[in-house]
Amino acid sequence: MAVTIEKERSVLVVFPHPDDEAFGTSGTLSKYVDMGVPVTYACLTLGEMGRNLGIPPFATRETLPEIRKKELQAAADAIGINDLRMMGFRDKTVEFEDDEKMVQLISGLIDELDPSLVISFYPGYSVHPDHEATARAVVRAVRRLPEEKRPKMYLVAFSNDTEENLGMPDIEHDVTDMLDRKIKTLKAHSSQTAWMMRDLEPALAAGNGEALERFAKERYYYYRWQEDFENSF
Amino acid sequence: MEKVNPEHLQRLIDSFAGKELYIHLETTNGSYAAHFNEGFFNAGAFIRNAQIRFELGKVVGEAPHRVGLKLPYGWVYAQGITHYELDEHGRLLMAGLDGEGKLAVALQLSETPFAY
């Protein structure tokens, strides 16, 4: 398992929802930012279909996107990302978009930014249909590059059968020294995380082992090209 | 959004009757339902900015309420409606929030299209 955070030329992060970056990646991203590595975060949707509206409701179906847009910007600020791109898709519809269009979107970002590392989800192991569609587009775009030109991929996998099928993560970053910023990032997404942070923040402050294991370590898999989810696209 | 006041909501629904409207109708268990509860049968439906016109609309039942719209050639209904609001754009937003404040159903009517 690789534990050292390598210096990258530049990092491209692709996730579909505001807050996808916060849980498993924001500490790592803060580390890259502090190393002077350019980080671009392409966030495909504004989480328009988020279910949590609160008791009493703090939002409606129609006001939630504006709230989450501001939260996303605040989260990027907390991490230190200055190239945040909101890609304009609608939550829960990414898998129904034209697949070739999605691949070209990712290919376009890779061509423009020439990242040495792409961070996204692992296809087949990322639970939410938008995560899966994003993961497929990322893998397809990278697959189209000649092997020697492919950026590394750090992929987040969290379906219940992940360890059974993929084994232990290949990369584990200890981001304990970034916990303050990670907590700030999580809190920026308060429409999604307020209920969770009420318990989590004191637990982390008290050095609770379970909370630290979950939030102070960020884990990724390399893509198993030898077990590609499809032969070609 | 406020908790449904059936008489007030009925008056609001009446005010949309006979008009050319855009509708948002959604039911959801959330995309993680089968992740947290393996074997859960996750079903839901979503339609946004379909155009409808209804001749009769009713809010019925104790909370959570049911709302039904009779169309010239069909029906729309939603059950589990707990909250509503006539928003600043004159749109009637109705939603059913579960005990944790999570949206389970939404029925929204507007004379102008909803954003994307």
UniProtKB/TrEMBL annotation, chain A:
A Pfam family it matches: PIG-L
Classification via SUPFAM superfamilies: LmbE-like
InterPro entries noted in UniProt: BshB2, GlcNAc_PI_deacetylase-related, LmbE-like_dom_sf
GO MF entry, a single one: hydrolase activity, acting on carbon-nitrogen (but not peptide) bonds, in linear amides
Family matches, as NCBIfam families: thiol_BshB2 (TIGR04000)
Name of protein: Bacillithiol biosynthesis deacetylase BshB2
Originating organism: Bhargavaea beijingensis
TrEMBL record, chain B:
Pfam families: DUF1806 (PF08830)
Source species, domain of life: Bacteria
The protein, known as: DUF1806 family protein
